[in-house]
What we know:
The protein is an alpha+beta fold. It is 41% helix and 27% strand. It contains four helices and five strands. The protein has helices at 3-15, 55-63, 68-73, 83-93; strands at residues 23-27, 31-36, 39-42, 49-53, 77-81. It has a five-stranded mixed beta sheet. It is globular and about 30 Å long. The termini are far apart.
Amino acid sequence: MSDIINEAVSQLSTKIGTFDGSVKFVVEDEGSIMLDEAGVREGDGDADCTMTADAETFRGILDGDVNPTAAFMSGKLKVDGDMGQAMKLGAALS
């Protein structure tokens, strides 16, 4: 598992804990993170929503330097599946 994924799992566990629904966050060239009722973990399972970004954008979202909605609108964050889940996660990260 990459350092970025390890750090992200730790930060998301602190910020969010468990998540009502399921979201997979794919960090390009690094790996995937699953968020659901069971918590936050490295993984690549099925999810209601899959969000994909490069490592720089993902770090910015986690650190609060990049607004998830702005990243989506500019094409830096791709969302597939349930947009409601993506918006709920974005609100939890803000």
